[in-house]
Amino acid sequence: MSIMSICSAISGCYWRSPDLFSNRESKSFLKLKAGSSRRPRRAVVTMSMEAGVGVMGTKLGMMSYFQADGEVVPVTVVGFKEGNIVTQVKTEATDGYSAVQVGYQRVRDRKLTKPEMGHLQKAGAIAMRHLQEFRLLSIDAFQPNQRLVFDQIFQEGDLVDVSGTTIGKGFQGGIKRHNFKRGLMTHGSKSHRQLGSIGAGTTPGRVYKGKKMPGRMGGTKRKIRKLKIVKIDKDLNVVMIKGAVPGKPGNLLRITPAKIVGKNIPKN
Question: Model pTM?
Answer without folding.
Answer: 0.75
